[in-house]
Amino acid sequence: MLAARLVCLRTLPSRVFHPAFTKASPVVKNSIMKNQRLLTPSREYATKTRIGIRRGRTGQELKEAAFEPSMEKIFKIDQMGRWFVAGGAAVGLGALCYYGLGLSNEIGAIEKAVIWPQYVKDRIHSTSMYLAGSIGLTALSAIAISRSPVLMNFMMRGSLVTIGMTFAAMVGAGMLVQSIPYDQSPGPKHLAWLLHSGVMGVVVALLTILVGPLLIRAAWYTAGIVGGLSTVAMCAPSEKFLDMGAPLGVGLGFVFVSSLGSMFLPPTTVAGATLYSVAMYGGLVLFSMFLLYDTQKVIKCAEVSPAYGVQKYDPINLMLNIYMDTLNIFKRVATMLATGSNRKK
């Protein structure tokens, strides 16, 4: 699942559209003229011939419609994605008001925190500190990478070799930090954590091509989204969002496939724009829901993990999912702000 989130975090295709398109293809014109010649000899079979031609060309027409550039359709798809995000934001705001005002009959984690033992509070505090440290280290790594012309030129190529090497580095660093036990090898564990945070700075470094004030706005918006969703997870019943694991896994599969497809299909086609919208707008809503799920998962593990059991509480491993959710949300918010500013221009 962590690897799928890493793929969803890959660079989305550019939204710079080029409206210079031809009105009709020569192949389509030749086929139409040929069909007209076939229809002229006999009026008796005209209806059957037309039906046969339409049936035979249905698949081809669908293919051409999916890959034909259409600015009007692309704009509609983009607007549908933005309305989907707005609907998700309205639902999240309603949930925040509902659970925040104590309208639910069940008690949430924020009420249970009063009776938590000290070790549970320490576990949640350490997880939060590691999350803040990962975000800070990633920001520093992104700044360092953005100031290196060699690394930025390599990352901006967009070739299969670059994508493969970046993906392998991110997945390898994630697997390394998760494989080291937190209690048995604290030194190597923290070194792997530092390495993982530095490697993830590559993703944020690619966003530095945007304007500075835009990135600051995206960071503030992301902080508001993460803070609001974390409050919802704390105020909601303890296991309210833990039942969403299976639907979220299915949704992650759709976003995963859309992210892969958007790497190869140009966003100037209907198919490419659809995959792009699913990967960006659908991914924003999906990872917001994942943030609710992962936050309550951290709270649940902090409560039930035994202090002297075989599987002990690992704040770094549990923090990684929330960290990936935050990066995915930030990337999509920054992309939405960038496309919005380009559209105004």
- Structural class designation: mainly alpha
Poorly predicted regions: 13-57
Helix content: over 70%
Shape: globular
- How many E-type strands? 0
Query: Averaging pLDDT over every residue, what do you get?
Result: 76
| Main pleated-sheet profile | none
> Over the alpha carbons, how many angstroms does the gyration radius reach?
25 Å
- Spatial separation of the terminal alpha carbons: 38 Å
How many alpha or pi helices?
13
Query: What's the SSE pattern?
Result: HHHHHHHHHHHHH
Q: Please state the oligomeric state of the protein chains shown.
A: single chain
Strand content: under 5%
GO cellular component, one term: mitochondrial inner membrane
Protein name: Growth hormone inducible transmembrane protein
Keywords: Membrane, Transmembrane, Transmembrane helix
Family: Belongs to the BI1 family.
